[in-house]
Amino acid sequence: MVLGYSLHPMSIFTADEIAYLKSQPLGRLATVGPDGQPHVMPVGFRFNAEEDSIDIGGRAGFAKRKKFRDVLHNPQVAFVVDDVPSVNPWTVRGIEIRGRAEVLETGGSILGPGFDPEMFRIKARRIVTWGLDGKPYQQHARSVP
Amino acid sequence: MVLGYSLHPMSIFTADEIAYLKSQPLGRLATVGPDGQPHVMPVGFRFNAEEDSIDIGGRAGFAKRKKFRDVLHNPQVAFVVDDVPSVNPWTVRGIEIRGRAEVLETGGSILGPGFDPEMFRIKARRIVTWGLDGKPYQQHARSVP
């Protein structure tokens, strides 16, 4: 007898959430500047199954970007992946991940050719989803223990 | 002789930026909670030519949403509209608007049928664009006087 079995027994994400994260090319990452002013930009990302994290890096000067400087000052970030699978009827789905970004000085090359060594590794503390279960206007929110 | 003529002489946005904002159905709005934790969600929006603002509201309880509570505490927001006009070759474009959201207690009905009275009116203080001029990897940033 197997209790609590799932396809991703070690993940804080559900199998549906992981499949959705793997299906989307871009998300939008929000960081906060020292003056409390948020900043938000589209970014590529990778769901890292080993670390159960969202890994984000960049090319050609990632460590010089505003988001990198923001995170050095305040590691709290929010990351949203969403899309509109149908325009008629209007149907939306997505996942927001709030948490903390760890700044790694090396390792960015796992994200692909040409990536800078620096990268973010985001660990979720709160997860909000909508539409992943086919009910687009119903949000599900949970904190990560 | 007309100096400084443009199609939108009273706007802080260029004609290209306004056309782009009008062409896109969704943006992503970042707010910041009292603890410095950002929050980001997809939202519909309207470019308001009269106010030179980005107007954002919602249905069925906008004033109860986290973003609304966040803005009451910290009016600083960031809003990004972006898309991928071509996957091959990979081509991106977009605009990020950082600024302050004014909370209006009434007026949301201008956004469409069924919208709650409460709404945000975002005035830009900093504008970053990429790809709107066909050069996707070149960012242009400016502060609004």
Plain-language structure description:
- The structure is a homodimer of 145-residue chains.
- The first copy, chain A, is mainly beta and 145 residues long.
- Chain A has one domain (15-143): Pnp Oxidase, Chain A.
- The first copy, chain A, has 2 helices and 8 strands; from the N terminus they run αββββαββββ.
- In chain A, strands 1, 2, 3, 4, 5, 6, 7 and 8 form an 8-stranded antiparallel beta sheet that branches.
- In chain A, a hairpin with a 4-residue loop joins strand 5 and strand 6.
- The longest helix of chain A is centred in the N-terminal third of the chain and has 9 residues, at 15-23.
- The mean pLDDT of chain A is 92.
- Chains A and B meet through strand 1, strand 2, strand 5 and strand 6 of A and strand 1, strand 2, strand 5 and strand 6 of B.
What's this entry about, in short?
The structure is a homodimer. Chain A has about 140 residues and is mainly beta. Chain A is built from two helices and eight strands.
User: How many individual β-strands of chain A?
Assistant: 8
Overall pLDDT of chain A, averaged?
A: 92
Q: What is the H-and-E element order of chain A?
A: HEEEEHEEEE
CATH topology of chain A: Pnp Oxidase, Chain A
- Computed over alpha carbons, the radius of gyration of chain A is 16 Å
Shape of chain A: globular
How much of the sequence lies in strands of chain A comes to over 45%
Which segments of chain A are poorly predicted (pLDDT under 50) over 5 or more consecutive residues? none
- Oligomer designation: homodimer
> What summary fits the major beta sheet of chain A?
8 strands, antiparallel
Report how far apart the termini of chain A are.
25 Å
Q: For the record, what is the CATH homologous superfamily label of chain A?
A: Electron Transport, Fmn-binding Protein, Chain A
